[in-house]
């Protein structure tokens, strides 16, 4: 495959695209509940530190490879390795990344379908007057209904693949240019509303007054893992986006901009959520159920609660939509590298992901007791092993390739950070980011 001729039309388009890739369930669902479970401000402080030391350098490495290769992830890795006098077997890392995002998108589409269901329920005012037990029972009934789950899974995946099939400028770029500003506007509106609640002050104090005595190995590992996952690195998805990066754009500035925007989304979501939680006297350490059980109850008792809750689930749906497009792009790019046209490649990916996703749908009903590996059903397997094991493996190998395999002249040119900036980046990746990624991998295996 020759170099791709597609490019993002502007520097802004590239930054919005990568931000759209990074912003998703990790920021709006996972960040609040994992912050709640790990002490609030001290977790936030460590998370930001590990974004700088782990997530950001590896993200730059991944984009750098795509920019240097200007091909699909698999083709870029094989081409660059051969040019450097190394084995072309490095290309299989691109296939491994495509398999990783295939597994992740198969459940991501199912979970994102939940936001469609909750958005409709919030608009209808179904949560008004319900307590946590009633909301939880309704959620359980929805999970146990394979037909409703399948419909939402199908709708969300169709939304995703239609955009990917349209191409870089007509599909991905247009959607990101529309949805990312809208997403930030919704976040600002929700955060502004949070400032009017009685829980705003306690939420700010809890999020921004760290107690360093609360630092434990568990909190450190959690912050490290979230910093890695939140920037969407490790699956060669950003490598595909890097292939479309404009020629005259500073990669470090763009990457730092994406990291700042990503952290900002998490902070605004945390402020909006915890202000409501504290205003209602609820526990911030509710765990994964914070989004789909605690928040509907908390919002329902506020003035115009149904409206604000509807806005929140609309925000969640938009964030997961842009993120799922990022998951699909490297798979489509890989099939394009094998000679398929984009539209046909998108159809193949969409149908196969949909079929595998049905196993996750049925994991809450007829396949709930089918546990093929490690005592986990299919949904538990795909939500655990790919994010916690496959992504760190991919991230570590990507970092090794960029910092040790690529010739210095190639990586320096693609990074475009100047001699001092390049040395700082390579030193950080070699001696800080790679060891930290291995810690994340080991913790996932344990």
UniProtKB/TrEMBL annotation:
The keyword Transmembrane applies. It is found in: Membrane. GO terms for molecular function: symporter activity. The chain crosses the membrane at residues 12-29, 41-65, 92-111, 150-169, 181-208, 220-244, 256-282, 302-324, 345-368, 388-407, 428-445. Pfam families: SNF. Keywords: Membrane, Symport, Transmembrane, Transmembrane helix, Transport. This is Transporter. It comes from Halomonas organivorans.
């Amino acid at each position: 495959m020759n170099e791709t001729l597609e490019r993002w039309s502007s520097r802004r388009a590239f930054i919005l695209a990568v931000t759209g890739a990074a912003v998703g369930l990790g920021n709006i669902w996972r960040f609040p509940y994992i912050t709640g479970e790990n002490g609030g401000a001290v977790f936030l402080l460590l998370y930001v530190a590990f974004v700088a030391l782990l997530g950001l350098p590896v993200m730059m490495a991944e984009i750098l490879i795509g920019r240097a290769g200007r091909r699909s992830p698999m083709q870029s890795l094989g081409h660059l390795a051969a040019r450097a006098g190394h084995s072309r077997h490095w290309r299989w890392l691109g296939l491994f990344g495509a398999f990783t995002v295939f597994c992740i998108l198969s459940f991501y589409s199912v979970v994102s379908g939940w936001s469609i269901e909750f958005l409709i329920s919030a608009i209808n005012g179904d949560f008004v007057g319900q307590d946590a037990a009633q909301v939880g029972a309704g959620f359980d009934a929805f999970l146990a209904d394979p037909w409703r789950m399948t419909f939402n899974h199908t709708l969300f995946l169709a939304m995703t693949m239609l955009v990917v099939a349209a191409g870089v400028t007509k599909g991905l770029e247009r959607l990101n240019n529309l949805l990312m500003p809208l997403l930030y506007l919704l976040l600002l509106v929700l955060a502004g509303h949070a400032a009017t609640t009685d829980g705003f002050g306690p939420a700010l104090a809890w999020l921004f007054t760290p107690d360093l005595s609360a630092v434990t190995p568990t909190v450190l590992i959690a912050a490290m893992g979230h910093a890695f996952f939140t920037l969407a690195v490790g699956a060669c998805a950003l490598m595909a986006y890097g292939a479309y990066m404009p020629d005259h754009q500073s990669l470090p500035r763009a990457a730092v901009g994406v990291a700042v925007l990503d952290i900002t989304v998490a902070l605004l979501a945390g402020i909006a959520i915890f202000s409501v939680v504290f205003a209602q006297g609820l526990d911030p350490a509710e765990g994964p159920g914070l989004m789909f059980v605690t928040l509907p109850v908390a919002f329902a008792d506020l003035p115009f609660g149904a409206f604000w809750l509807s806005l929140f689930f609309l925000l969640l749906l938009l964030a997961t939509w842009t993120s799922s497009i990022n998951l699909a792009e490297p798979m489509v790019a890989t099939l394009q590298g094998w000679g398929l046209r984009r539209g046909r490649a998108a159809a193949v990916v969409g149908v196969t992901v949909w079929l595998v996703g049905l196993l996750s749908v049925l994991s809450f009903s007829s396949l709930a007791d089918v546990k093929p590996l490690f005592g986990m059903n299919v949904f538990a397997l795909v939500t655990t092993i790919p994010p916690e094991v496959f992504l760190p493996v991919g991230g570590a190998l990507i970092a090794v390739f960029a910092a040790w395999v690529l010739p210095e002249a190639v990586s320096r040119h693609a990074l475009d950070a100047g001699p001092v900036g390049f040395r700082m980046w390579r030193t950080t990746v070699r001696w800080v980011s790679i060891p930290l990624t291995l810690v994340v991998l080991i913790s996932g295996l344990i």
